[in-house]
Amino acid sequence: MADKFDVIVIGAGPGGYVSAIRAAQMGLKAAVVEKWISEDGKPVFGGTCLNVGCIPSKALLEASHKFVEAKHDFDGMGIQAGDVSMDVKKMMARKDTIVKNLTGGVAGLLKGNGVTAIQGTGKVVSSKQVEVTDQDGKATTYDADNIVVAAGSVPVEIPPTPLVDGMVVNSTGALEFQETPKRLGVIGAGIIGLELGSVWNRLGSEVTVLEAMDDFLPMVDGAIAKETQKLLKKQGLDIKLGARVTGSEVKGEEVVVKYTDAKGEQEVTFDKLIVCVGRKPYTEGVIAEGVGIETDQRGFIQVDDQCRTSVPSVYAIGDCVRGPMLAHKASEEGVMVADIIAGHKAEMNYDAIPNVIYTFPEVAWVGLTEQEAKAKGIEVKTGSFPFAASGRAMANNATEGQAKIIADAETDRVLGMHIVGQHAGEMVAQGVIALEFGSSAEDLALTCYAHPTMSEAVHEAALAVEGHAIHMVNRKKK
C-alpha cells in the first residue's frame, strides 16, 4: 500500500515546491508530485519559472544587455573593447547551465527538508486521495489529509498562428534559438513579448511586435507606460498597437503574417515568429470528475482568499487560480496554505504583489495606478522624479526613466509605486513594504536614503508628493 501523507502537493513549480518545503518545516509529512522528467528519466523541479520562464529568460536578457553595453556604451566610459560579437550558442549553453544548477538545487532542498518526491502525473481523485501515473502508465493512489494543487499554466495558442517547429514558436521555443533571426515577429506586447523581443533586438534582429490592444501596457501607470513605449521604440522595437493577427503561413524559411489595423489589412514577413499572447491554467486532467472542485469557464480553480477550494482539505495555488500569474505570488500562496494546514492563522495581501518587466530599463510597479485610483473615486496626489536628475544614474549611464508615487490625497497613504529605470525591480520592494505597513508618502519622505543610490529617486518622488523634492524645481506650492 502506498504511503499516507499529511500533505501532497501536485506540481513542483515555485508554488508547489515552496509549499511542500514549508509544510515539512511545520512538521508535516509532505510529498510533491512532478510529471516533468529530464532526458535521463529524473524528475525536473522548478516548473515553468526555473526551466522555461523567469530564470532562462533573465539569463538571456542579462547577456544581451551586457553585449549592447559593450558594443555601444563602453567607449563613452573610456573602455576600449574593440569589435564585440555574440556567440548565441554559448549564451544558450550558459542559460542551460544556470537552469540545471537551480533545478538541481530545488531537488536538494526537497531532499534536505524531508519532502518525498514522486515522479508522475498527479490527479485529485477524492478529497483525500491523489492518483499518480508514472511514465510507464502505472497508476498508484496515495492518501493524504490535505492536497494542494499547484499545476501551473501553459502558453495560450491562437488559431491564426498554429505553432510550427522552429519557425512559429511560443515563449518556450523562443528560448532555444541557436542563431539570431534577421526579422523577428512577436505577437503580444505584454511582459513576455517585450522581454523576448528585447533579447533578440539587442542581438541584431529587426523586431516587430504586433499587439491587438490599442493601449500599451494598460496595467502600468499611464505616465510610466508612455515613457516605456518611447524608450523601447528608441531601442529599435517596432511596436504596432491595434494590430489584430488574422493568419500566418510558413513559406520555405519565412513566415508570412496577416493582420488588420486602423489602415486595413496588412501583411509582413518574418524569419521567426514568437506567439506571446498570455498563459492559461493547466487544470485539464488534474481533477477527476465527481470530486466536486469548481472551476470557471477559463479553467481556473475557484478558491477563496486563503486558496481553499470548494472541497474541504483541497487547496489550489499559483497560476491555476485567480490573480496574477507570477512565481512570487505562487510561492507566497504556497507558504500561506502550508501554514494554514499546520494550524496557523495565515493570510496574504493581494494588494501588495509587485510586478516587473525585465527590459532595459526595467519597469516595476505595485499597488494602484493613478488611473485605477481615480476610477475607484479616490482623490490622489502624486510625486515623480526623473533619473536624469540622479547622480548615481548619471554615473551608471542609466538616466532614462522615472519613479512615481501615488498617495491618497486625504490620508497620504501610499496607494502605488511605479518605476521605469535601471534596477526598478529591486527598488519597487520599497513600495511593497510601504503598502504592507500602510505607510504614508511622508514616511518615505522622512526616511534617510543612502547617497548616491538609484533609490534616491524614490525618496525624491515621495518628497515631490507635497512639492518638496530637493533636486528638481517643484511645481506644487504650499
Automatic annotation (TrEMBL):
For this protein, what does the record note about how its cofactor is bound? Answer: Binds 1 FAD per subunit.
- What does UniProt list as this organism's lineage? Bacteria, Pseudomonadati, Pseudomonadota, Gammaproteobacteria, Oceanospirillales
Which GO terms label this protein's molecular function in UniProt?
dihydrolipoyl dehydrogenase (NADH) activity
Q: What is this protein called?
A: Dihydrolipoyl dehydrogenase
Q: Does the keyword NAD apply?
A: yes
Do the record's keywords include Cytoplasm?
A: yes
Q: Which SUPFAM superfamilies would you find in this protein's record?
A: FAD/NAD(P)-binding domain, FAD/NAD-linked reductases, dimerisation (C-terminal) domain
Reactions mediated catalytically: N(6)-[(R)-dihydrolipoyl]-L-lysyl-[protein] + NAD(+) = N(6)-[(R)-lipoyl]-L-lysyl-[protein] + NADH + H(+)
**UniProt keywords, alphabetically:** Cytoplasm, Disulfide bond, FAD, Flavoprotein, NAD, Oxidoreductase, Redox-active center
Q: Which PROSITE patterns match?
A: PYRIDINE_REDOX_1 (PS00076)
Other notes on this protein?
Answer: The active site is a redox-active disulfide bond.
Q: Where in the cell is it found?
A: Cytoplasm
Task: Tell me what gene encodes this.
Answer: lpdA
Family classification:
Belongs to the class-I pyridine nucleotide-disulfide oxidoreductase family.
Q: Which residues form the FAD/NAD(P)-binding domain?
A: 5-334
Q: Which InterPro entries match?
A: Class-I_Pyr_Nuc-Dis_Oxidored (IPR050151), FAD/NAD-bd_sf (IPR036188), FAD/NAD-binding_dom (IPR023753), FAD/NAD-linked_Rdtase_dimer_sf (IPR016156), Lipoamide_DH (IPR006258), Pyr_nuc-diS_OxRdtase (IPR001100), Pyr_nucl-diS_OxRdtase_dimer (IPR004099), Pyr_OxRdtase_I_AS (IPR012999)
Q: What is its EC number?
A: 1.8.1.4
| Cofactor(s), names only, from the UniProt record | FAD
Q: Which segments constitute the Pyridine nucleotide-disulphide oxidoreductase dimerisation domain?
A: 353-462
